[in-house]
């Protein structure tokens, strides 16, 4: 099973964050205070977009070739979000816990 690289995850997180926050630059430089003080609705929208973007990301087999039949997934909820102190914690969580699943 081929998992997403940290750089791929960063791009996915940046894409989802841009839908709820105005930010340009290195995603890991997003201010910690802005991240943790995001309104609840923005947090929920961010998580929803993140989940969609992870699920939609092209699956690659262990040889690095595009492959059909699987997608990436990770468990995301407001509880996980509340355990993150910054965007780097979010990236690290996804890197640790995402998986590839067979399409139904």
Write out key terms for the chains shown.
104 residues, mainly alpha, two-stranded antiparallel ribbon, 49% helix, elongated
Structure description:
The structure is a single chain. The protein is elongated. It has 104 residues and is mainly alpha-helical. Strands 1-2 form a two-stranded antiparallel sheet. The chain is built from 5 helices and 2 strands. Helix 1 (6-18) crosses helix 5 (87-97). Helices cover 49% and strands 8% of the residues.
How many distinct helices?
5
Q: What percent of residues adopt helix (DSSP H or I)?
A: 40-55%
Low-pLDDT segments, ≥5 res = none
**Rg over alpha carbons:** 14 Å
The succession of helices and strands, N to C, reads HHHEHHE
Largest sheet: 2 strands, antiparallel
Report the span from N to C terminus. 17 Å
Estimated structural class: mainly alpha
Q: Within the largest sheet, what's the order of strands?
A: 1-2
Assembly annotation: single chain
């Amino acid at each position: 099973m081929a998992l997403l690289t940290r750089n791929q995850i960063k791009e996915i997180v940046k894409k989802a964050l841009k839908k709820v926050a105005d930010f340009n630059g290195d995603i890991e430089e997003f201010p910690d205070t802005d991240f943790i003080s995001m309104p609840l609705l923005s947090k929920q929208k961010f998580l929803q977009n993140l989940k969609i973007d992870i699920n939609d990301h092209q699956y690659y087999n262990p040889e690095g070739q595009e492959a059909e039949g699987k997608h990436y997934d990770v468990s995301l909820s407001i509880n996980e979000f509340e355990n993150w102190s910054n965007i780097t914690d979010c990236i690290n969580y996804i890197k640790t816990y995402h998986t590839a699943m067979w399409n139904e």
